[in-house]
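Task 17 of the worksheet. Students: predict the tertiary structure of the chain below and write it out as structure tokens. Keep your answer in the requested format; marks are given for formatting as well as content.
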Amino acid sequence: MSTKKQGAAYIVGGGIASLSAAVLLIRDGSMEGRNIRILEELSVAGGALDGSGDPTKGYVTRGGRMLTEETYVCLWNILESIPSLQNASRSVKEEIWDFNTEWRSEARARLIDRHHRILDSSDLGFNLQDRTQIVRLLASPERVLSGKRIDEYFSEHFFGTNFWAMWRTTFAFQNWHSAIELRRYMLRFLQEFPRIHTLAGVRRTPLNQYDSVVRPIEAWLKGQGVSFEYGVKVVDVDFEESFVGRRISRLQAVRNGEPTSFVVTEDDIALITIGSMTADARLGDDQHPPELIRDKQDGAWSLWENMARKAPGLGCPAAFCGNVDESKWESFTLTICDPLLIQRLHSYSSNAPGTGGLMTFKDSSWLMSIVVPHAPHFTGQPDNVHTIWGYGLFVDKKGDYVDKTMAEASGQDILTELIHQLGFEDILDQVRRTTSVIPVMMPYITSEFAPRGAIDRPPVIPHCSENFALLGQYVEIPEDVVFTVEYSVRTAMHAVYGLLGLENRIPEIYHGMSDPKVALASLATLVT
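Model answer:
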């Protein structure tokens, strides 16, 4: 039972961390839904878990999530409580697991070279020095790695291996990212070492994550009386200090261009998402590249900056949002009104849509990858329309076939580069006539991987906090990995259980090293 008298809950942000926090407040904290207010700057919930469009204007998702049964325990905990929109007698978790029983991932074209050949990606390409360096990284305590980059721990040979091409594109690592985060990923996803070349451990949602995850959670919360207030940009907070600690007394916001505020009483709590990986994302189209925004027009970063200036112990946002050129990359979604490209990809890769993983063009100057999802991937998607999602890590380099950087390229330019990377030039004209492409530039998409110090990420419940907690990808949870839905949901559990004084057990972080079978298989992959 809660040891805190319950008032209202103000939740800033409408991403998966906030939605999960609202579920937990109701399910485990016995809070009435009508006492929960979710304040979201955008006009839609879901944060990075998006999915929108139609067959005429084109579909778009900014990203795609690859889930695993072992690692995503907090997410499954939430989704087992949420009824499916298709069948209220089944949970969203059951719906996802049943889908993956039918549609298993087993990528047969994980890496493709400059000659359009499918490589033997089971050959990870390690030499003795690579293996030694991986072991050294895994054995290093985090205090030794503080502020260090990945490329400070590995030789040039390692960065040319098949393993690094697959690992970095699966998880979106750049060579200059944090060595701490790479170490955590290798430990957290140790079970993926033997199957990184097939991505057989990956689990996906039946539709995109907005339709499969966000919409059912939102529907359930609204059914419980939770208030969703869209178009509300929280820009600052008022703190009150006392001999007991520090509390938030007011949220300062802007609604429809006009200032407003929310009073947070002594019995209320505030849960605030800090930072945003998808802040200031912009869409392009077939003829235009997406704009790159550098001046923090989104409110997520400025809110954290304002809070950190006012109170100690709230982290260092500049460590993550201070270098757009090291955190940006670009994704794209193809909407295809002719089956030719999908049929050719099926024949080329031996993977039916929904059964493969990322196809990475290892030698491409943009380091481009694509995935062909099971259709339909969007609610209401017609049977004769297909989609492909992809992204490029090196957006400031010119294409191998298009004389533009990826950042300068329109949707049709990206499509042209892709078709040439595949060696499908004979169908280029037909594919261009029947395909629309929406590219998305995201300035902060891998900002959570930036090299950091020990105190740059604040704890979920900061020291001396009486009534507030922090959510999302930029708080610190020891041993867990950012850039995952699991991390956001876990922050919600720590926040809700901690603020309400609940004794509910948070699912343990999965450690492959503690499972002898997994550890032996992974180590065998590393040394052979």
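Marker's comment: The longest strand covers residues 232-241. Residues 9-49+69-96+207-321+452-500 form a domain with the FAD/NAD(P)-binding domain fold (CATH 3.50.50.60).
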